């Protein structure tokens, strides 16, 4: 039996969902699935790079404000980071102590807030609810200093709390191309090659989307939202 965990995430200061880059760290306007998985894994106390649950868990994000409003609160700051450099090291001591510095520009979103839906096996989702209410480690969204507050945490059950249906009106981001939103390629999953790499998917992101034909969705009874999940 499946269940859905509904909760709101809010960063009281700022956060950054970094796109891949060199000296300019641009941010996505919403948390990617990989970021949300990392937050849940942290709550469960899982080891770093433990992606054993990612195939079981499906995330969806319902935007509480438009992308334009979110992006109007994006600021840029400058950071100086140290990188190990051994090219000019001569002695063993130097090989272990030579560093180089580089400056980067990082985008951050001021005080973002999102509504998150997490679908999976009932027992697994129930356990996750317990853990995000009492996490094994401090929770953050994005970088380790991006503190996050979770509120309105609800376990939703089919029929009593949500109904499986079809709809042409969507109240969450949706995989693929839809009307009324912006198409963004978002990190979706970690895949194993030599090292872990990010698998990305195309999503349409907006407060309200529409489809030319009915799509599989979950109608949340408490707020009448139609939520869709990837691969459904």
How is this structure best described in words?
The chain is mainly beta and 232 residues long. Helices cover 14% and strands 46% of the residues. A 4-stranded antiparallel β-sheet has the order 4-7-1-8, with helices on one face. Strands 2, 3, 5 and 6 form a 4-stranded mixed β-sheet that branches. The radius of gyration is 20 Å and the shape is globular. It starts with a strand and ends in a 5-residue tail after the last strand.
CATH topology: Alpha-Beta Plaits
Compute the number of strand runs: 14
| Major beta sheet summary | 4 strands, antiparallel
How many domains make up the 3D coordinates?
1
Helical content (DSSP H or I, runs of 4+)? 10-25%
CATH top level is Alpha Beta
Q: What share of residues are in beta strands?
A: over 45%
Q: State the end-to-end distance.
A: 16 Å
**Element-by-element helix/strand order:** EEEHEHEHEEHEEEEEEE
Q: Structural class per helix/strand content?
A: mainly beta
Level-2 CATH architecture: 2-Layer Sandwich
């Amino acid at each position: 039996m499946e269940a859905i965990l509904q909760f709101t995430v809010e960063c009281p200061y700022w956060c950054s969902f970094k796109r891949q880059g060199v000296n300019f760290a641009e941010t996505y306007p919403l948390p990617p699935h990989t970021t949300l998985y990392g937050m849940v894994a942290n709550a469960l106390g899982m080891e770093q790079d433990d992606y054993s649950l990612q195939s079981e868990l499906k995330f969806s994000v319902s935007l509480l404000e438009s992308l334009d409003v979110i992006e109007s609160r994006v600021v840029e700051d400058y950071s100086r980071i140290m990188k190990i450099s051994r090219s000019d090291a001569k002695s063993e001591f130097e090989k272990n102590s030579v560093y180089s510095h580089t400056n980067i520009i990082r985008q951050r979103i001021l005080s973002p807030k999102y509504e998150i839906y997490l679908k999976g096996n009932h027992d697994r989702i129930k356990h996750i609810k317990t853990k995000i209410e009492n996490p094994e480690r401090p929770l953050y969204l994005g970088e380790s200093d991006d503190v996050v507050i979770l509120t309105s945490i609800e376990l939703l059950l089919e029929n009593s709390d949500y109904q499986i249906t079809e709809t042409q009106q969507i109240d969450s981001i949706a995989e693929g191309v839809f009307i009324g939103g912006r198409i963004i390629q978002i990190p979706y999953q970690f895949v194993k090659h030599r090292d872990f790499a990010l698998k990305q998917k195309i999503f349409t992101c907006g407060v309200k989307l529409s489809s030319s034909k009915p799509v599989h969705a979950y109608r949340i009874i408490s707020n009448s939202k139609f939520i869709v999940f990837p691969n459904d």
